[in-house]
C-alpha cells in the first residue's frame, strides 16, 4: 500500500497481480494536452535547478489526465477555480505554455504580469489562489451568479485531498447544497498532502463528507481519459441542468515532490507511484503515437523555454 | 419632521440601492423577513426582492467568500456579519482573497463588495459581542474601512463605498442604531455641524477658535458631544470635533485643513490601545502638525481589557464621555 489510509481514501492500491486497466487510444489533441503539461512541469523543475525560477512551484506530474478530462467537459461560460497545483488546470484550458511560463519567470507576455506567479492566475473565467479551501465559497458565489445570469453554466473548483482539512470547505458545501448551486468540486486525491499521507490527515473519506450534505459524489480510480470522460459527462450535465453540486474524487498519483525537493516518501512508495504513471502505461500500449507526440511536445516546450527566457522582465508598479 | 433613526436610515439606503441597481445582492445571518436582521437594518428587503436577499447558515467565512464570488462575477455584494467580533472568522476571505484580488493578478480588478459589521459595546453584550475590531483590518492593501455615523447620509456613504470598487468593511456602531440622524446642521442648542470632503465638523453655532480638536468616528459621536458640553460649561474649554466616515486609508487632506492651526489634537476611539485607527490618524497628521502642536496628539482608548457584560463593569472599561472630558482637560491644562 502506498499509505496507511483505508482503501476508500488512499491512492489506488497497486496490486501487481491485477494491474490497472489498459489505456484506450486517445485523440492526438488529448494526448498533446497531457504531454504538454508533462513537459512543461519537467522543464520547470529543470529551470529551478538551473536557478532561473524564483520561489516555489507545485507540479502535477502524474495527474495530467485529470484536468484534460475535466476541461473537455467545460465551456467558455464555466468558471474554473484552481489551486496551488494549478499549471495543469491552466494548460488544459488554454494550452498557453508561453503565457504561463512568462508568468513564472516574470517575463513579458505573462498572464498576470508576473505579479501572481504560479499560484495566482486570472484569465477570463479561470482563477487560482494559494490558500487551501478559500475558493470553495468564492466559487459558490460565482455559481449563484451563474444560476441567475447564465443557467446551464457551472463553477468548477479543483481541490486536493489536503484541502478537505479546511473548515470553510464545509461551510461552502452546506450553502451549495442548500441553495442548489451548479458547483463541480474536483478532488485530486493523490494520497499525500505535502508530506502527510491521507490516512494521517483525513478521518473517514471524501464520499462520506459529500454524503453528509446530500451532495452527489463519484469516485474514479481509472486514468483512462476516454472512459473517465464518458462516465463524467452525464454527471456534469446534471450539475448544469439540475443546478446541483457534485463532488468528483479522482484517486491519482503525484509523481513529483510537493514542491521542489521535498519528497519524503520511501523508495518503495515512489516505485509504486511511478509504476502507476499513465504515461508509462500509455507509451507501452500505443508506442508509435506516444513517441511522436511526446517528441513534439518536448520540442515545443523547449522552444517555449528558450523563447520566454529571452524576453524582457515584466513591468508593474503598485497603484 | 423627525429625523430617522440610524438603523432606519441604513435600511432606507439599502432599499434605494436595491431599487437603483438590480445587481445588488445581500446576504447574511437572519437578514430575511420577518426577522429583518438582528438589528433590523435589512427589514423589508427580502419581501421586496426575494431572489436577491438570502439568509445564510452561521458561516461567516463562507458568506463573505460567497459575497466575494458574487462581486467577482459582476454583482454588487453586500454581506452582513451579525456582530463585528465575528469578522475574524472571515479574515482569510477579506485579507487573502477579496483585497488581494484587486491587484494580485497584475491588473486592477474592481470589486463591488461591502461587509457590514454591527460594532462596539455599551450595549451589555459581553466580551465576544461588543468589540471594536477595526484595528485588526487596518493597513491591508486593497481593503477600505468605513464607519457609519449619525452625521453622514448612509445612501451617499454606501454608494461611495461600492463605486470605489475597493472591497470594504463598513462598521456600524450598535449604540447608534436607535439614535436619530442629525439633520439640518444642528446637533443641539449649542452645537451645529457641517460636512466637507466626507468629514463632519461639530462646533459651536457661533464658532470661536478651539482649544482642542477631537477626531473620532460614528460610534463615539454622542459620548463626544456630551463631553464637549461638559468641557464648555464646566471647564471653559472649547473643543471642535471631526467625524470621519472613511477610517482607512486615512484621509489626511481634509483632516489637515480642518484641524488648521490647532495646538492640541486628540483621537477618540472605543478600541483598546495598540495598533489602532487612532494611531494611524496620529501618524498621518504628526509630520504636518509638528510645528504647531503644543503637545503630541493624544489617543483616547478603552482600557486594555476584555469587555465585561454587566453595565457598571462595561462602563468602567469602555470610553465614556467622562473619559473624554478627563483626557481633554489633561491635554489642555497639561
Automatic annotation (TrEMBL), chain A:
Keywords: Oxidoreductase, Thiamine pyrophosphate. It comes from the Bacteria. Its cofactor is thiamine diphosphate. This is Dehydrogenase. Residues 34-301 form the Dehydrogenase E1 component domain. It comes from Micromonospora lutea. The keyword Cytoplasm does not apply. InterPro entries: DH_E1, PDH_E1_Alpha_Subunit, THDP-binding. CDD domains: TPP_E1_PDC_ADC_BCADC.
Automatic annotation (TrEMBL), chain B:
Keywords: Oxidoreductase, Pyruvate, Thiamine pyrophosphate. It catalyses: N(6)-[(R)-lipoyl]-L-lysyl-[protein] + pyruvate + H(+) = N(6)-[(R)-S(8)-acetyldihydrolipoyl]-L-lysyl-[protein] + CO2. Residues 4-179 form the Transketolase-like pyrimidine-binding domain. InterPro entries: PDHB_mito-type, THDP-binding, Transketo_C/PFOR_II, Transketolase-like_Pyr-bd, Transketolase_C. It comes from the Bacteria. Its EC number is 1.2.4.1. The keyword DNA-binding does not apply. SUPFAM superfamilies: Thiamin diphosphate-binding fold (THDP-binding) (SSF52518), TK C-terminal domain-like (SSF52922). Its cofactor is thiamine diphosphate. The pyruvate dehydrogenase complex catalyzes the overall conversion of pyruvate to acetyl-CoA and CO2. This is Pyruvate dehydrogenase E1 component subunit beta. It comes from Micromonospora lutea.
Amino acid at each position: 500500500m502506498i499509505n496507511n489510509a483505508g482503501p476508500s481514501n488512499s491512492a489506488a492500491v497497486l496490486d501487481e497481480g491485477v494491474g490497472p486497466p489498459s489505456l484506450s487510444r486517445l485523440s492526438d489533441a488529448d494526448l498533446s494536452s497531457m504531454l504538454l503539461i508533462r513537459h512543461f512541469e519537467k522543464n520547470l523543475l529543470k529551470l529551478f535547478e538551473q536557478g532561473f525560477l524564483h520561489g516555489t512551484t507545485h507540479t502535477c506530474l502524474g495527474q495530467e489526465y485529470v484536468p484534460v478530462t475535466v476541461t473537455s467537459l467545460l465551456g467558455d461560460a464555466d468558471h474554473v477555480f484552481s489551486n496551488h497545483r494549478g499549471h495543469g488546470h491552466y494548460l488544459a484550458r488554454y494550452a498557453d505554455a508561453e503565457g504561463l511560463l512568462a508568468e513564472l519567470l516574470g517575463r513579458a507576455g505573462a498572464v498576470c504580469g508576473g505579479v501572481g506567479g504560479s499560484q495566482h492566475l486570472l484569465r477570463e473565467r479561470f482563477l487560482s489562489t494559494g490558500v487551501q479551501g478559500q475558493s470553495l465559497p468564492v466559487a459558490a458565489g460565482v455559481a449563484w451568479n451563474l444560476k441567475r445570469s447564465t443557467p446551464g453554466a457551472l463553477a468548477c473548483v479543483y481541490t486536493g485531498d489536503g484541502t478537505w482539512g479546511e473548515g470553510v470547505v464545509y461551510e461552502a458545501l452546506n450553502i451549495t447544497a442548500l441553495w442548489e448551486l451548479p458547483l463541480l468540486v474536483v478532488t485530486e486525491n493523490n494520497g499525500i498532502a505535502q508530506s502527510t499521507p491521507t490516512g494521517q490527515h483525513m478521518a473517514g473519506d471524501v464520499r462520506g463528507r459529500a454524503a453528509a450534505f446530500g451532495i452527489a459524489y463519484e469516485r474514479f480510480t481509472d486514468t483512462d481519459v476516454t472512459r473517465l470522460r464518458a462516465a463524467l459527462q452525464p454527471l456534469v450535465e446534471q450539475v448544469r441542468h439540475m443546478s446541483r453540486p457534485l463532488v468528483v474524487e479522482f484517486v491519482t498519483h503525484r509523481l513529483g515532490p510537493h514542491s521542489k525537493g521535498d519528497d519524503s516518501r520511501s523508495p518503495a512508495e515512489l516505485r509504486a507511484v511511478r509504476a502507476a504513471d499513465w504515461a508509462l502505461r500509455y507509451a507501452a500500449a500505443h508506442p508509435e503515437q506516444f513517441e511522436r507526440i511526446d517528441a513534439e511536445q518536448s520540442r515545443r516546450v523547449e522552444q517555449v523555454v528558450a523563447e520566454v527566457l529571452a524576453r524582457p522582465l515584466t513591468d508593474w508598479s503598485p497603484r | 419632521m423627525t429625523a430617522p433613526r440610524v438603523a432606519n436610515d441604513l435600511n432606507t439606503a439599502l432599499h434605494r440601492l436595491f431599487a437603483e441597481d438590480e445587481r445588488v445582492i445581500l446576504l447574511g445571518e437572519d437578514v430575511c423577513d420577518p426577522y429583518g436582521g438582528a438589528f433590523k437594518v435589512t427589514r423589508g428587503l427580502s419581501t421586496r426582492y426575494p431572489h436577491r436577499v438570502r439568509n445564510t447558515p452561521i458561516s461567516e467565512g463562507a458568506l463573505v467568500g460567497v459575497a466575494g464570488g458574487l462581486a467577482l462575477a459582476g454583482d454588487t455584494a453586500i454581506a452582513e456579519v451579525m456582530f463585528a467580533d465575528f469578522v475574524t472568522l472571515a479574515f482569510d476571505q477579506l485579507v487573502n482573497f477579496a483585497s488581494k484580488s484587486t491587484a494580485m493578478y497584475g491588473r486592477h480588478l474592481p470589486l463591488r463588495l461591502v461587509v457590514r459589521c454591527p460594532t462596539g459595546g455599551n450595549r451589555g453584550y459581553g466580551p465576544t459581542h461588543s468589540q471594536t475590531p477595526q484595528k485588526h483590518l487596518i493597513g491591508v492593501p486593497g481593503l477600505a474601512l468605513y464607519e457609519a455615523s449619525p452625521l453622514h447620509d448612509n445612501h451617499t456613504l454606501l454608494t461611495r463605498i461600492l463605486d470605489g470598487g475597493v472591497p470594504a468593511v463598513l462598521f456600524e456602531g450598535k449604540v447608534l442604531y436607535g439614535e436619530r440622524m442629525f439633520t439640518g446642521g444642528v446637533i443641539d442648542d449649542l452645537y451645529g455641524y457641517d460636512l466637507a470632503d466626507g468629514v463632519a465638523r461639530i462646533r459651536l453655532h457661533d464658532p470661536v477658535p478651539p482649544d482642542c480638536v477631537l477626531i473620532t468616528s460614528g460610534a463615539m459621536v454622542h459620548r463626544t458631544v456630551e463631553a464637549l458640553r461638559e468641557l464648555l460649561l464646566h471647564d471653559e474649554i472649547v473643543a471642535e470635533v471631526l467625524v470621519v466616515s472613511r477610517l482607512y486609508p486615512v484621509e489626511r487632506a481634509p483632516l489637515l485643513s480642518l484641524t488648521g492651526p490647532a495646538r492640541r489634537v486628540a483621537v477618540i476611539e472605543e478600541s483598546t490601545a495598540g495598533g489602532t485607527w487612532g494611531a494611524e490618524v496620529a501618524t498621518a497628521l504628526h509630520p504636518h502638525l509638528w510645528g504647531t502642536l503644543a503637545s503630541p496628539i493624544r489617543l483616547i482608548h478603552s482600557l486594555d481589557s476584555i469587555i465585561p457584560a454587566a453595565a457598571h463593569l462595561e462602563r468602567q472599561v469602555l470610553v465614556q464621555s467622562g473619559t473624554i472630558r478627563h483626557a481633554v482637560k489633561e491635554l489642555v491644562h497639561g
